[in-house]
Amino acid sequence: MRSDIHAHVPYARLAEHLPYIVANRINPEVFFSAQTLDHIVWEELSAQAHILHSAGLSTTLHAPFLDLNPGALDPGIREVTQRRFLQVFQAADQLRPRIIVFHPGYDELRYGSSRIDWLKNSIDFWNGFIPRAKESGSIIAVENIFEKEPSTLRALLEAIDDPCFRHCFDVGHWNMFTTVSLEEWFASLGTFIVEAHIHDNHGQTDEHLPPGEGQIDFDLLFSLLRRHAPGAVYTVEAHTFERLERALKNLNNYL
Description:
With 255 residues, this protein is α/β, with parallel strands linked by helices. The chain is 47% helix and 15% strand.
């Protein structure tokens, strides 16, 4: 598999699927849940990282996100979020990922009237992690989730203003929540994109379909990625083997 194409793999299933991953040369984006981080055996992770690196595979990571929020107004939530993210960087020391994807935690329904406070907290939070990202040789990439349009993410990216802090564009989330076109999103954030999460849906639920099996225009998406973010990693988010195989096959229609 090309080094710029990755596939979602929960860490809890990495050991089980490692022979398949190596045999099929799948570059994993390893997802760590909070529960996984609490029970991880670091010596096992080190051994798994050695197998992946020896096979010449590239890795990216996905941090936990449920209940976490770097810009939370409650300092206790920010403290827990910081602890979890530090655990992710401990895993990064072993896996040496190119990129670590984080959810930024902004939701207009909850924070619309407190946007400035959320943004200030988030800027302070991430500035504290930039040295850690540089130490690990990884790029932090904040992923769009509930954002209807890109202005809040752009404000965060411009305020941090560091090549170690960039954007992961999730086209499935964009299709569910957007009020702007793909062209408008890329005009605002295209130069910040270092990774794209590739999956399809019909705009109502996060179906995680293979590309081309929902309503997203992937010809347009990949043309915009080639124009604005030619070095981006493409991560397939398929949650079954069967869908992963279809997704990788369907990608050939666009790459």
